């Protein structure tokens, strides 16, 4: 889940006298244009954000998306209110009509192709979740489609709870090639994940598959390929 801090200042607010607002009174960086990341916000998340904004104690300019690079492939995301006056000149600002999303330069590189959702846990509980939107492998054929469906509907939702994901790389005959990312890349439990999780799910749902190979470079210079035991 993405952490929610409510209100959080990441740096000193610039002196308005030293940094005059652009003509026309628009927020710095508010115009949509080139270089803006692709962010998808689900309807459930949008409604929840609007509810939080309406319930804020002081006027809110928008939502700040923060990313902490705990590792190059598995950033930790968080969300916070941007109170009026807390906007920064170097923010990238995306206008979602109901509210704006502010992204500082340090977080911008981790904000491309992500989806913001709100996951309800019942009894009024829940939290925001931010996932990478994975590029689809351009593979054709019924076997590839079946494997991709298992990855989308069963494997990736489970791995997302631990910050990981699987991408289908290729299908050759009865052999499937996959690549792991996020928290699964280089994880010490990757063999267990492959043997007892990914391999089992794929073979149970797609019995035509005989072999699953992991093409992830888990550790540079070491054997990056994994072949399940027969």
Helix and strand topology:
Blueprint: E1 3-7, E2 39-41, H1 43-54, E3 60-68, E4 76-83, E5 92-95, E6 100-103, H2 105-108, E7 114-122, E8 125-132, H3 142-160, E9 164-172, E10 175-182, H4 190-205, E11 211-214
Parallel strand pairs: 1-4, 2-7, 3-6, 10-11
Antiparallel strand pairs: 3-4, 5-6, 7-8, 9-10
Helix pairs in contact: 3-4
User: What is the residue-averaged pLDDT?
Assistant: 75
Q: What CATH architecture label of the largest domain applies? A: Sandwich
CATH superfamily of the largest domain: HesB-like domain
If helices are DSSP runs of H or I spanning 4 or more residues, what is the number of helices? Answer: 4
Largest sheet: 5 strands, mixed
Helix and strand composition category: alpha/beta
Helix content: 10-25%
Strand order of the largest sheet: 1-4-3-6-5
The general outline is elongated
Contiguous runs where pLDDT drops below 50 for at least 5 residues? 8-33, 220-230
Tell me the number of strands: 11
Instruction: Give the termini distance in whole angstroms.
Output: 37 Å
Series of secondary-structure elements, N-terminal to C-terminal? EEHEEEEHEEHEEHE
Domains, number: 2
Query: DSSP strand (E) fraction?
Result: 25-35%
CATH topology (level 3) name of the largest domain: Hypothetical Protein Aq_1857, Chain: A
Rg over CA atoms: 21 Å
In the CATH scheme, the class of the largest domain would be Mainly Beta
């Amino acid at each position: 889940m993405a952490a929610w801090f409510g209100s959080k200042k990441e740096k000193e607010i610039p002196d308005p006298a030293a940094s005059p607002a652009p003509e026309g009174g628009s927020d710095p960086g508010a115009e949509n244009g080139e270089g803006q990341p692709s962010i998808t916000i689900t309807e459930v998340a949008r409604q929840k954000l609007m509810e939080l904004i309406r319930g804020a104690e002081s006027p809110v300019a928008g939502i700040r998306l923060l990313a902490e690079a705990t590792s190059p492939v598995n950033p930790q995301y968080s969300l916070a209110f941007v109170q009026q006056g807390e906007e920064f000149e170097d923010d990238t600002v995306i206008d979602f009509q109901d509210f704006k999303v502010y992204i500082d330069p340090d977080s911008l590189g981790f904000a491309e192709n992500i989806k913001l959702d709100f996951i309800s846990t019942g009894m009024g509980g829940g939290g925001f979740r931010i996932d990478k939107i994975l590029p689809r492998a351009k593979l054709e054929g019924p076997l590839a489609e079946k494997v991709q469906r298992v990855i989308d509907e069963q494997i990736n939702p489970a791995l997302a709870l631990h910050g990981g994901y699987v991408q289908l790389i290729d299908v050759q005959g009865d052999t499937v090639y996959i690549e792991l990312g996020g928290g699964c890349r280089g994880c010490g439990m990757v063999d267990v994940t492959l043997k007892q999780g990914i391999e089992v799910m794929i073979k149970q749902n797609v019995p035509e598959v005989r072999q699953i190979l992991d093409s992830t470079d888990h550790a540079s210079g070491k054997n990056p390929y994994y072949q399940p035991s027969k």
